[in-house]
Design goal:
Layout lengths: L12 H18 L3 H7 L6 H7 L18 H13 L5 H15 L2 H13 L4 E4 L15 E5 L2 E12 L6 E7 L8 E7 L6 E6 L10 E12 L11 H7 L1 H29 L1 E2 L2 E2 L4 H30 L4 H25 L10 H9 L9 H12 L2
Parallel strand pairs: 1-4
Antiparallel strand pairs: 2-3, 3-7, 4-5, 6-7, 8-9
This protein binds flavin-adenine dinucleotide.
Length: about 375
Amino acid sequence: MLPQLYRHRWMDEDIEAFRDQVRRYVAAELSPQLDGWRRQGFIPRETWRAFGALGFLLPELDETYGGAGASLAYQLVVQDELAKAEIPANTGVHNLAAHYILDYGSAAQKQRWLPRLASGELLAGIALTEPGCGSDLKALRTRARRDGDGYVIDGAKTFITNGFTASLLVVAVRTGEAGSRGVSLVVLETEDLPGFRVGRRLEKIGQHASDTAELFFDGVRVPADRLLGEVEGRGFAQLMSQLAYERLFLCVPAAAVIERAVELTVAYTQQRQAFGQTVFDFQNTRFKLAECATLAHVVRSFVNDCIQRLLDGTLDPEAAYMAKLWCTEQQGKVTDECLQLFGGYGYMAEYPIARMYADARVQRIYGGTSEIMKDLIARKLGT
Ligand SMILES: Cc1cc2nc3c(=O)[nH]c(=O)nc-3n(C[C@H](O)[C@H](O)[C@H](O)COP(=O)(O)OP(=O)(O)OC[C@H]3O[C@@H](n4cnc5c(N)ncnc54)[C@H](O)[C@@H]3O)c2cc1C
């Protein structure tokens, strides 16, 4: 049992009741299907319609946009519960895409897309990374050329979460000069969109239920009002100003997975026998688990503090970079240490700890790599 954490102001009775609702729904409706989704390599888009109907997709949106006018804490609680149940972060990406529209969309764009994103009628993805650039996004080459009353888009994206299942994409494109000032974001409804093609669904070492795909744009023609915020060249700034939230977003599953890994490992080692005693009784096991439980506690405290600051409007980007860096590194470390205590069973894919270990690896890569986080933190130190 992990020690009780200090109860932050953001955790009230209503949020806990909501959490309980989400947890029960996930256990009853999503978890039983997870093995099948892993085998097929994606979660069907329709899954999220029921999730949206219950108000779990975008509770933080205003009621005019189909939300419940709740605080962002409700969204983070949903992500926490999904991660505890090993459901991948597909709704997390959906959420981040919706926030681009919420923060930068015109009134007409918000009205057009947000209600359908909240209900789950549309599932969203974010397409930034290209075969030739990921960390260095200002080098992106997918081009949106102005043509009459619209744009024609040519290029390719890769590693896109929900790439296979999404019906709406926020896509980073080049509308102008080389470098960051020539980047814009466009929003595409991809169903029956001529020139748009989903390429391979990529095979990964973990996160097997989450689809990750290549996308191709060959002369995709869209009306000019698909440009997010209606002014060209603001895409890079739009991407940058969402980063604190996005980075914190990845820390919540890190905290959830670390806690679950410790719980599973305590339970397993308490029943596994070796040399006439339980594995838990070896001093090495007890020390390792004590270290992991301590990390679980510190990670959760850090994440809770960042959530509180996010809600108060005082979360500075550097704290979010530090949280992303540190929490995801600890997730890798704890899942590795815990796997070791399972022995050979820890390497078997049917054991959750094996999957958690493989799933954790990408947390240090996507949403900005650990190296990029360090670079951003160091830049601020140097000022
Ligand atoms: C499962 C998965 C899902 C993803 N989902 C999405 C998605 O939904 N949408 C999307 O747009 N992208 C997505 N990505 C892409 C992801 O964001 C990129 O892979 C990531 O940003 C790294 O970019 P890259 O792969 O091009 O690596 P590179 O940028 O080529 O980096 C290679 C190595 O060089 C290091 N490096 C790069 N620059 C520096 C520097 N300045 N200083 C020090 N080291 C540096 C990196 O840290 C890394 O170790 C996903 C990736 C994966 C694996």
